[in-house]
């Protein structure tokens, strides 16, 4: 299928259509200064834009500083997610206050969910989708959790990552079969996982490296339970590995050492953190002492992160080719190591080879690969230690980066 680089304006809310047309023609990244909404805080994006994944109405190759996603104010965005399957490929998702979902970027396999396979450089609505409570972006597929605690998916389905019992791509949302009572979702490059309210984790899609955690390497187009894993409260997915937090999350008001980090799947660069580079087909314990417990987990393509302690410090492990671990080196880490100088971590997200974190001082810091400006600091120089991406914005409370892509989102 052809990946069109023509803006498909019919997807946009009518009030924005004229603005999109003008902005696309002029190559502008935000609404005109005279617009009534020009001064409102907006969803921000930076990094690679070859697929329109920054959503700013242009096809500019990349942005080294933040640009505004067209037409979406911060106030109407409830959650954000990012997908991508390569350095120049990616798509963005935004869950709005009306519980509908907007999407933009690459759409070769229908991952935007608008019934087409045409890429778009500005947001438009995912069709036949309402009452959404959470979203996730994979390599070239997307997931949504509905208010009835079921899951729908759309996009690429060559390995069954849509979970609907077929291996046929879908450009509109389809129901993940046999899955209910779900409270959280995550998407890898070509697989998907879901956390049920009973603390079990279910997975479907690509499984050659054991990323489904069922003890086999057989890909599955319906959800199967991850083996020997219960009591889970958080999940995250990398390209081909997964992380689960077992036990209640810690925090300043409720520190606990009674939780554990479990991982499974691909491990060639140490992303499982079990002091080996052996892929695991069922969950194993990540090594290390989690003083004060773990409050958050996150995954990049081949690296992993955990926010620890009552001070919200950060540990990372796995691939470090571009400095995405943030410890000042490019050495792979097969067990967790501290990220120096980073405290007060509120949120963290991982991209293909970069990491983004929101700190308590309302700054966004990034580190790792920066060939497309995905660190947002005005350069294309890689950094093995954190640099500042955003300082002008206040009230940032959402971050996203694609496990297989080179851009970042903040709201």
TrEMBL record:
Kindly indicate where the leader peptide sits in this chain: 1-38
Q: Which SUPFAM superfamilies match?
A: RCC1/BLIP-II (SSF50985)
Return the GO cellular component terms, semicolon-separated. cytoplasm
Entry keyword Repeat: yes
Domain named RCC1-like: residues: 40-283
What Pfam families would the database entry show?
RCC1_2 (PF13540), WD40_RLD (PF25390)
Q: What is this protein called?
A: RCC1-like domain-containing protein
What is the source species?
Streptomyces rubellomurinus (strain ATCC 31215)
